[in-house]
Amino acid sequence: MMKLLLSVFIAAVVLTGTANAQHANIGIKGGLNVTNIHNSNGVEYDNLVGFNVGLLAHIHFNKQFALQPELVYSTAGASNKNGPFETKYNMGYINVPVLFQYMFDNGFRLQAGPQVGFLVSAKSKTGDFKEDFKEDLNKVDFSLAAGMSYLVPKTGFGFDARYNLGLSDINKEGNVKSTNRGFQVGVFYLFDKQ
Question: Tell me: the pLDDT tens digits for 81-90?
Fold first, then answer.
C-alpha cells in the first residue's frame, strides 16, 4: 500500500511540476466507462459500466502538438453469467495516462499514449455473496489509450472519448492471460484556458 501511495504522490508532483514549467492548463475530468476483461482462453465476459474522475494537465508544445498527463481514479471489470447467477468483477485503479495530442484549429484533437494503472480495489459479487480478490491480481497494469477530444472554442469546456487496450496480464498466477479493455466517454474543464 505504501508503494502505491508513493507512486500516486510522485505522479501528482510530476503532473503539477510539468504544468507549472510550460504554457499549460490544469483541469478536471469525469465520465463513463464501459469495460471488459479479455481472456487468452477464449472465455468471454459481458461489459461492465463504471466511471472515471480526476485531474489533467494540458501542455502546449506549439499550435498543433500538446502533451496531456492525467491522474484519474477509474473503475474496470466485467460481468459473467452462469445460468441464473451473474458475477460482477469490480476493480478500481489510479490511472496515469500520458497522451500525445494533435490539435486541429476547429477544437478537435486526436490523442494516443501509454497508461500505467495502480490497483486500488478488486471485489466480486454474486447475488448477496461478496469476495475481495485483490491479492490475486497484479498491482500494476500497463495499457495503451487512443481517442479524440473536442474543446469548445474560447471556453475551457470539452468532451473526450477514448479506448484503453490492456497490455499486461492482470492475473498474478495461472495459465490464462487476462487484460483490461474499455471505452471511456466524458467531459473535462480546463481552468484559465487561454
Answer: 887 888 999 9
Over the chain, what HEC string results? CHHHHHHHHHHHHHHHHHHHHCCEEEEEEEEEEEEEEEECCCCCCECEEEEEEEEEEEEECCCCEEEEEEEEEEEEEEEEEECCEEEEEEEEEEEEEEEEEEECCCCEEEEEEEEEEEEEEEEEEECCEEEECHHHECCEEEEEEEEEEEECCCCCEEEEEEEEEECCCCECCCCCCEEEEEEEEEEEEECCCC
Find all residues with CB under 8 Å of 160, minimum gap 6, and list them. 29, 31, 147, 148, 149, 150, 184, 185, 186, 187, 188
- Grid coordinates belonging to 82: 452462469
Q: What is the pTM of this model?
A: 0.85
Grid cell, residue 138, equals 497484479
